[in-house]
Amino acid sequence: GVGSRGVFVYGSSAVLGSGATTAQRTDNGVSYFLPKNLGGWFGQVHVAAGEGVVGNKYTGGRLGFENNTFLVGGAIGQTDVGSTQPKFKNYNLLFNYKSPWGTLHTLVDVKKWGPRKAQELSIGATVPVTQAGSFRVGYTTVNRSGG
User: Fold this and answer.
1) d(CA 100, CA 7)
2) Distance CA 18, CA 112 (A)
3) In whole angstroms, what is the distance from residue 55 CA to residue 45 CA?
4) Can you give the pTM of this predicted structure?
5) In the chain, N or C terminus with fewer CB closer than 10 Å?
6) Hey, CA dihedral for 44, 124, 69, 130, is it positive or negative?
7) Domain coordinates in residue numbering, the chain
8) pLDDT tens string 88-146
9) CATH for 6-145, options being 2.120.10.30, 3.30.870.10, 2.40.160.10, 3.60.40.10
């Protein structure tokens, strides 16, 4: 939507020209999620077969911890974009702080493909204003390099 950091994450330039089709979703993927009874720990491993389509073969995972005050986590993934090309890689770290006034959101996201690299920093907040609504604000900056 308007003002969404998704324009950086899901737009055509998000995969740095690599041809990866996995920035938003994968086809024919399988995931394993850690059980919910691990005292706040969460995680996922995901693989998707390429099925002969360049840019569809994906492997990745995420791990994190959440309690009443904060959520911290990280993820890493890579997409095979052809036998003669380097893999498209994406990794990120997030930290959310929950307080009585609302939640502070932070995310550092890095995408790499050969010499091309995008480093994104997102900072935002969600502040409840009524029982049914909240005020959201966010800022994202991207530093791209390598062509």
Assistant:
1) 30
2) 9
3) 19
4) 0.85
5) N
6) negative
7) 6-145
8) 999 999 999 999 999 999 999 999 999 999 999 999 999 999 888 999 999 999 999 98
9) 2.40.160.10
